[in-house]
Design a protein that fits this description.
- The chain has 461 residues and is an alpha/beta fold.
- It has 15 helices and 20 strands.
- A seven-stranded antiparallel beta sheet has the order 8-9-10-14-13-12-11, with helices on one face.
- This is Phenylacetate--CoA ligase family protein.
- GO terms for molecular function: ligase activity.
- Keywords: Ligase.
- InterPro entries: ANL_N_sf, CapK_Type1_Caps_Biosynth.
Length: 461
């Protein structure tokens, strides 16, 4: 009902609806203990490494005790493990994958859905996972994130250009070449990441110049396409406009960073987290990536589950009390660094974050559809255990589906296809193939997108 009303309303009404939605969402994020957590994050900024490690140990012990007390899943998993709350014994605890959590999620939860904030994640494996956050966990996560961004001058209410998976545009917007919606109260403009096409990018560039945001947040692949268009067409972006760029959800490559920083004339500050609630890695002003020990435990293991400096990333996150993540194999790889940093943050350093796939699907009608938007095609569907997209030609994609036959229905298939049409347009051929299994790569990684047409797009970038 609300979606239909939104679609038929004039633009100014739609933008007030966006603002009203944000007011409700921000009450959850910035209410309660948020300001206490923000103050604590500021105090922790310049602690010594031993002090940070002491906080990590204390929080770990409390987190494990609560999980065992409140979660049936962890009561059973950790039964018989002596002194499980001691961080020195973390290797005795089992390693869990996303499927372990998905298949036992009701027993994993420590609270009911009406007690927490529900986050539905697609993830780069294509599997949906519903995570419940305690309200105070949500507030702490935003406090940590805002403290990180505040180092570059960011605060809520300053003009921000946001590039995420929000689908807010109507057919009338497209006709008017209007690819954004604005929350005028909080001064946030949400730019569509579904219409990144050569024929539209000029409107993005010009609107960004006119809007004059102080900050840019969101999918870096979308920002990259805008920057490339501006460079290729000789459109100069005004200096001293954007103070910082905060990319999310995708890998920041050296070339991507150089392109964004040179075109928008600012600095990129990278971060690592996840919709499931992974602990944080933040980039400092010196360009170094710091593991935030006060947010969780990062283990880097080889294929035999032994510690290494470059391997699988196993996470334990202190801000996931509603759906505890304990030794969670998130599917990424991390390379540690033995360097030190003189920025004032004494948390350990990361040399590189590997494994976040930045493949995309290309639509001749719409343009590039990034991995975040591909993952979100699972929205409002059930029974799709896994999917993989193959693109071998410009006008056709093949989507392989592993389904749960007890849940998957023609109506769900129609919704899934509708989600895809929202992203690739009406002209592409979409072929669905129901399969028993989608094999992983030789590396052991699963890829949601296999793009085999990059050579055909070289002249378009």
């Amino acid at each position: 009902m609300i979606e239909k009303f939104f679609a038929k309303s004039p633009n100014f009404v739609q933008e007030w609806m966006v603002t009203f939605y944000n007011i409700k969402a921000y009450k959850k994020r910035y209410g309660g203990k948020y300001h206490d957590y923000l103050q604590k994050a500021r105090e922790n900024r310049n602690l010594t490494l031993p002090q940070l490690e002491a906080i990590q140990r204390e929080r770990y012990a409390e987190f494990i005790r609560k999980a065992v007390s409140d979660s049936r899943f962890y009561q059973q998993k950790f039964a018989g493990i002596a002194d499980a709350e001691n961080l020195d014994n973390i290797s005795k605890l089992p390693i869990l994958g996303k499927e372990d959590l998905r298949s036992h999620i009701d027993d994993v939860y420590t609270i009911s859905k009406d007690q927490g904030n529900l986050a539905k994640t697609g993830g780069t494996t294509g599997k949906s996972l519903q995570v419940l956050y305690k309200p105070e966990n949500t507030q702490e996560r935003f406090a940590m994130l805002d403290e990180f961004r505040s180092r570059a001058g960011y605060e809520l209410g300053k003009k921000t250009a946001w590039f995420s998976g929000k689908s807010l545009l109507t057919s009338n917007d497209i006709k008017r070449n209007r690819f954004w919606k604005t929350d005028n109260w909080y001064k946030v403009r949400y730019y569509s990441t579904f219409h990144i096409h050569e024929k539209f990018l000029g409107y993005y560039v010009q609107n960004l110049i006119d809007f004059k945001p102080e900050f840019m947040v969101g999918f870096p692949s979308t920002m990259l396409e805008i920057a490339r268009y501006g460079k290729n067409h000789g459109i100069e972006f005004p200096a001293n406009t954007i103070k910082a760029i905060f990319p999310t959800a995708e890998t920041v490559t050296p070339l991507l960073r150089e392109t964004l920083e040179s075109y928008f004339k600012t600095k990129v500050y990278d971060q690592y987290a996840s919709s499931e609630g992974a602990p944080f890695i933040f980039e400092c002003g010196k360009g170094k990536l710091h593991i935030e020990l006060q947010s969780g435990v990062f283990e880097v293991l080889d294929e035999n589950d032994n510690p290494t400096s470059n391997g699988r990333l196993i996470l334990t996150s202190f801000t996931t009390e509603g759906t505890p993540l304990i030794r969670y194999d998130i599917g990424d790889r991390l390379e540690l660094s033995d360097e030190t940093c003189n920025c004032g943050n004494h948390n350990p350093l990361v040399k590189a974050i590997h494994g976040r796939i930045d493949d995309y699907v290309y639509s001749p009608e719409i343009g590039k559809i990034n991995l975040g938007n591909v993952s979100n095609t699972l929205k409002d569907t059930k029974g799709i255990v896994r999917f993989q997209v193959l693109q071998n030609t410009l006008d056709t994609i093949i989507i392989k589906l592993v389904i749960d036959e007890k849940i998957y229905t023609p109506e769900i298939e129609a919704k899934f296809l509708s989600n895809w049409r929202d992203r690739v347009g009406q002209k592409m051929t979409i072929l669905l193939e129901i399969v028993e299994e989608i094999p992983v790569e030789k590396s052991g990684k699963y890829r949601i997108v296999k793009n085999n047409i990059r050579h055909l797009l070289e002249n378009q970038s």
